[in-house]
Amino acid sequence: MSDTVCVVGAGQMGSGIAQVAAVAGYDVRLVDVAPNQLEQARSGIEASLARLVEKGRVEPGDAEAALGRIETASEPGPADLAIEAATEDVDLKLRIFRDLDAAAGDGAVLASNTSSIPITRLAAATSRPDRVVGMHFMNPVPLMPLVELIRGLETSDEAAGIVRAAAERMGKTVAESRDYPGFIANRILLPMINEAVYCLMEGVGNRESIDTVMKLGMSHPLGPLQLADLIGLDTCLAIMEVLHDGLGDSKYRPCPLLRSYVEAGRLGRKSGRGFYEYG
Ligand SMILES: NC(=O)c1ccc[n+]([C@@H]2O[C@H](COP(=O)([O-])OP(=O)(O)OC[C@H]3O[C@@H](n4cnc5c(N)ncnc54)[C@H](O)[C@@H]3O)[C@@H](O)[C@H]2O)c1
């Protein structure tokens, strides 16, 4: 079983992945190019573990031990399993996969938490396409029980098995998807969110009505605009662009209002303002 995990990208997803990996007993190297993200990630993980201890879901000693297993770094290093969770940008991810191929060690499995970028394309940037796998966690990682596992064209059964076992060791249930744009989760979820933004743009309803209809009428725990703010509007736009380019169907065209918000820097919770304002 793999024992060292290198997580590349210490944003909301990378820090959550580092947390669940450390709680599962892995030694974790958490990497980011932005030093302030690494600091924020460490304090975020500490606060998240403290909440889980309060709720009785993690023992105090285990939380402390997990924190002690996380080191932060500016570059990837040797690992049994590397999990890339950097910004949703294909050129950036291709560069990171080339770097991981050189840094992680010959036997390592390289996984990506991408929401929508083809795993086969990331795999082709490495010398080991058979050992590249999609490992798509859900947000917030410590609370959501699913990992979507995506096999690229060349992914071996062995590599897929290693990722499945790692996800299960982190307490997650695995569902497998084929490598098509958006996989299963975002092929279904993002067009709904995009349509909610169209409803807002066209004045079909205000943000409260749109979210209330979906929460109370459809039993969704969050409305689609609240969920978009949680995911990050830049990430939502990037996923819609991958669906639009990859499937070539105009039904996936990103809503212009979504694009405007991203251009304005209104990225959702992480920037303090999206469809809603955050303190
Ligand atoms: N937000 C979600 O709900 C969600 C859910 C599932 C998957 N994802 C996917 O997870 C990935 C990360 O999303 P996020 O929401 O955590 O984004 P985020 O913006 O919170 O974090 C991205 C991090 O990547 C870092 N980064 C950029 N270039 C880097 C590099 N070269 N090396 C190391 N780090 C680098 C940034 O500094 C930033 O800290 C994306 O691929 C996204 O599609 C997001």
CATH level-four homologous superfamily name of the largest domain: NAD(P)-binding Rossmann-like Domain
Q: What value does the Rg take, in angstroms?
A: 18 Å
Beta content comes to 5-15%
The assembly state of the depicted protein chains is single chain
* Silhouette: globular
Task: Enumerate the strands of the largest sheet in spatial order, edge to edge or round the barrel.
Answer: 3-2-1-4-5-6-7-8
Q: How much helical structure, as a percent, in the residues?
A: 40-55%
Notes on the protein architecture:
With 279 residues, the protein is of the alpha/beta class. It folds into two domains: 4-178, Rossmann fold; 187-271, Orthogonal Bundle (N-(1-d-carboxylethyl)-l-norvaline Dehydrogenase, domain 2). 48% of the residues lie in helices and 14% in strands. The chain has helices spanning 12-23, 35-54, 60-68, 90-103, 119-123, 157-169, 185-201, 207-218, 224-231, 233-247, 256-263; strands at 4-8, 27-31, 70-73, 81-84, 109-112, 132-137, 146-151, 173-178. Strands 3-2-1-4-5-6-7-8 form an eight-stranded mixed β-sheet, sandwiched between helices. α1 crosses α2, α1 (12-23) crosses α3 and α7 packs across α10. It is globular and about 55 Å long. The model has no long low-confidence stretch (mean pLDDT 97). The structure holds nicotinamide-adenine-dinucleotide. The site of nicotinamide-adenine-dinucleotide (NAD) has 28 residues, from α1, α4 and β6.
